[in-house]
Amino acid sequence: MRTLPVAFAAIVWHFAVLTDAQTGDSLTYLTPKDTILLSVGPYGGKYFDHQLADGQTLYSLARFYGLSVQELYAFNPQLQARSISRGDPVRIPLPNRAILRFRAPEISPLTHAPVYYLVRKGDTMYRLSKRYFELPMDTLLARAGLQSHEELKPGQRIHIGWMNIKGIPPDMRSGLHTNPYAAANARMAQRFLRQLEQGKDAVLTKGAACWQKTSRDSEDFFAMHDTAPLQSIIEVKNPMNGLKVYVKVLCRIPDTLYDEGVEVVLSPTAARALGAINARFFVHVKSLR
Question: What values do phi and psi take at 223, rounded to 5?
């Protein structure tokens, strides 16, 4: 049987792109033929969309990538409201350690899938080099086939590294925030918990939360609430998935916009951090007095 020259095989592997709308197959969740196309979230987290193949389940998919099912739902709240089918995209967070950025002897076309980044409007080579991937700018330019950082354009694919097709062991995620908003919300959480430790009383209330689904994330965690002190931090929990978020109370709830059954009005960022699907959902609220 004839075989391809090593150099040619490496080129074919390097530029392999999955033409079918699925990642992996019915037996495996990731193959060397797959291409991992990264995106970077508003808080620096790295993600890619795994497209479900026949026979793949969310439970096994979560285990393959070192996540619990609830953590998987935190990144994909829309999946809780419907059944899944072939080709459905499932957002997967990737820890930096899972992306091998420099070629090493253990990296093989048989055991690793290539990882690319899709350039977005506003990206600069400096941002990609220093903030996103910690790769030398010259290395990124060479991998992108560019002579100058000024040639960078939206839609370009830049080869970042490789990922082992065996998946991500849970210990590789140790210390990683598996809620996509947790890192950004950590400071407000610390303020709330510190005041709780200092002996402040916590008042628990339950009711409906509302938010504007059509609005985009603004990196702000704020709320309207009728009884918590203004400028204070409150804890809001979604009992359906156990997710919590800590928000600053900016003002009271306007009577003319919301009915009496609304306990809290959340910013879009806060609601999405809770895995909210509907514009109105049930929450538990802890406020300090």
Answer: -155, 160
Tell me, what DSSP letter sits at residue 153?
A: -
Q: Give CA 198 to chain center in angstroms.
A: 33
Which among 98, 72, 286 has a CA at the least distance from the CA of 200? 286
Q: Distance between CA atoms of 40 and 49, rounded to whole angstroms?
A: 12
Say if CB 111 and CB 104 are below 8 A apart.
Answer: no
pLDDT tens, 92-132? Answer: 988 888 999 998 888 999 999 999 999 999 899 999 999 89
How much is the pTM?
0.67
Q: Which of 88, 89, 79 is nearest to 241 (CA)?
A: 79
CATH hierarchy code of domain 182-288: 2.40.40.10
The DSSP 8-state label assigned to residue 131 in this structure reads I
Give residue 263's identity as a one-letter amino acid code: E
Q: What 3-state class would DSSP assign to 144?
A: helix
Alpha carbons 69 and 59: distance in angstroms, whole number: 6
**Tokens standing for residue 156:** 């370009």
Contact call for residues 115 and 38 (beta carbons, < 8 A): yes
> To which residue do tokens 């809620």 refer?
179
**Domain extents in the chain:** 6-173, 182-288
